[in-house]
Amino acid sequence: MPLPALLLIDMQRGMQMPSLPPRNNPQAEHVIAQLLQVWRARGAPVVHMRHLSRTVGSVFWPGQVGAEFQPELAPFAHEHVVDKHVPDAFVHSNLERWLHVRGISELVLVGVSTNNSVEATARSAGNLGFATYVVADATFTFAKSDFNGVPRSAEEVHAMALANLQDEYAHVLNSAAALQLLAEAAI
């Protein structure tokens, strides 16, 4: 049985811009790097999502520095890269087919932002029948006002996005539990 795939979502330089609102989970990149190292050491599948904007002037416009992967989380040549133009990595991409061809049924999601691309991708993964796991300490987001104009901290936005996913579309866990999931799958 294939090992769970680690999906790194939008870990690009544009997510490190100082002009972005305050974020939560400042150690997320470190945790993601640790997970990535273990996944690679076990020979488990790794997939990198890259957001490429269709808006001219966006930091995620192809060819801009912001669209580049963060160097410490950049894909190896043999790792699959999915370019996407919307938050959901399954929309207008080959991701679902790529996973099915390899018999991969379990997905572990990490990256940014919890309430946008991570949540959108996790919802589709769950709806498509994948066993989906979102790693809370390996995801992060930014402060944002709610629909009523009430400012919400990044931690509040993060917690609500995870609550939206928990037990409906995905299982939310921490990085230690994600490593245990990989270890058990390798038995």
Which architecture name does CATH use?
A: 3-Layer(aba) Sandwich
> Which consecutive residue ranges, at least 5 long each, have pLDDT under 50?
none
Q: In CATH, what is the class?
A: Alpha Beta
- What is the name of the CATH superfamily? Isochorismatase-like
Supply the number of structural domains: 1
Organism: Atopomonas hussainii
GO molecular function, one term: hydrolase activity
Protein name: Nicotinamidase-related amidase
Domain Isochorismatase-like: 5-176
How would the blueprint of this fold be written?
Layout: E1 5-9, H1 28-42, E2 46-51, E3 80-84, H2 95-101, E4 106-112, H3 114-127, E5 131-140, E6 144-145, E7 151-152, H4 154-165, E8 171-173, H5 175-185
Quick overview:
By secondary structure, the protein is of the alpha/beta class. The chain has helices at 28-42, 95-101, 114-127, 154-165, 175-185; strands at residues 5-9, 46-51, 80-84, 106-112, 131-140, 144-145, 151-152, 171-173.
